[in-house]
Amino acid sequence: MDTGGNSLQMIGTDATKRKVCYFYDPEVGNYYYGQGHPMKPHRIRMTHALLNHYGLLQDMQVLKPFPARDRDLCRFHADDYISFLKSITPETQQDQLRSLKRYNVGEDCPVFDGLYNFCQTYAGGSVGGAIKMNHKQCDIAINWAGGLHHAKKCEASGFCYVNDIVLAILELLKQHERVLYVDIDIHHGDGVEEAFYTTDRVMTVSFHKFGDYFPGTGDLRDIGYSKGKYYSLNVPLDDGIDDDSYQSLFKPIMGKVMEKFRPGAVVLQCGADSLSGDRLGCFNLSIKGHGECVRYMRSFNVPMLLVGGGGYTIRNVARCWCYETGVALGVEVEDKMPQNEYYEYFGPDYTLHVAPSNMENKNSRQLLEEIRGKLLENLSKLRHAPSVQFQERPPDTDMPEEDEDHKNPDERWGRHMDTDMIDSSRDERKPSLFNNQQTPHIWVKKESVETDMKDQNDTASITEQGKNIDKMIEDTTSLKVTENTTVVPATIVEQPTPIKPDSENNSSVKLSSDLPSKS
């Protein structure tokens, strides 16, 4: 198999040790989307328990993220949307039905106890990782609580409220001329693509199920616009894709991307709903096949941020992210599962790896060759490593000592609030990830490879979006570090607090809805 990019000088060996920073808040597993909802933050706690009992925590710097603040989230999101997220509660939502509809909150994205704190926590971890990378304090940063790639500037979508990935990329752009975003979630990374659709500073590459599937975007022909033309790559896939078929696309495409784009940093979204047997997914990847994407991107020896994302068979999510943490560390993790707080979840085999199913692979060799050929052709039209005009750089985000006044462990939300999703009869219903309903192709700002855009309204909208992107990047971008640079206090994530590896899991309580099925 042609793996692509192996002649690049930047590629290192898998055996090379990397300095890894791992972000985890012990309270993240307490947040609860509601009865029957497939998104369960509890999976992050399960992942952490496996990392602890496999002995992987001792090989990383374990950090508690500092929560992102209002103004930090507003670097991408609209002020009124963030104000809404901060104020809405299960008790007040019935009085704000119009706002719930406006911001697409209440169905896929329910109001639950501690919602805004949850957003602050997972966003803080991703941006904290970006800051660590910018300061060259780690080679790889990990935030499995992050990766919520569907959130838009002014609305929630697909279980996602704030887009921690966009915020982390904006932070990385302070230090790096070019940032690469790669998405292996089964769902298209629409929120991140849309945010950077008209810039050549960020390349987005998404491998996803396409065709009557949430969110309905991510066509092969969606390639970016204006300065961003050819800087958005979409790899549309069908049901049942297996490891070999997936890697026959991933490695040659990503090898060519690394050769042409030469990013200073990589953000890899590791959504685990692309695994075989996922509750909402329809791919047939093994954990090793999924982890091979992490291994391959790690081999380029470029600073990398790993974030989570989808994944709804939570025992397999924990398996996957534990294994991929080992890949990041360069450690081969034993298949036999160690005793841990959630041991019964992993029966009857009690192993890290699970065999894929015998489901049909609907991705024919001819289809895969056509997709690969078209994307490599698009990449050939990309100029090598776009140059960026240097400008006076804004100050770095620093990591001062933690603010002692901020510490208040009593100001936490419980997890037992089961909020009913509101019954909002909408004239225009948003596509639903929760119901996994078939949806038509959603309008997305795009440019076809073959034809120019003719709709003047669409063009005006994209042009306006491009101006917003340019302003967003201009406000945060720094390209050159000089010895005389003044460093000022952090604007997003302050110095996280180290966590003791074995302290937070002892008091964890399992949710009845998370217990493994007896069937």
UniProtKB/TrEMBL annotation:
GO cellular component term, pick one: histone deacetylase complex
In its keyword annotation, does this UniProt entry include DNA-binding? no
Q: What is the lineage of its organism?
A: Eukaryota, Viridiplantae, Streptophyta, Embryophyta, Tracheophyta
Active site positions, chain numbering: 150 (proton acceptor)
Annotated residues for binding of a divalent metal cation: 185, 187, 273
Q: What is this protein called?
A: Histone deacetylase
Composition bias (Basic and acidic residues) maps to 405-416
Recorded catalytic reaction(s): these are: N(6)-acetyl-L-lysyl-[histone] + H2O = L-lysyl-[histone] + acetate
Please name the Pfam families in this protein's record: Hist_deacetyl
Q: Which residues bind substrate?
A: 108, 158, 312
* InterPro entries (UniProt xref): HDAC_I/II, HDACs, His_deacetylse_dom, His_deacetylse_dom_sf, Ureohydrolase_dom_sf
Keywords attached to this entry:
Chromatin regulator, Hydrolase, Metal-binding, Nucleus, Repressor, Transcription, Transcription regulation, Zinc
Q: Which residues form the Histone deacetylase domain?
A: 37-325
Originating species: Zostera marina (Eelgrass)
Where is this protein localized, as stated in its record? Nucleus
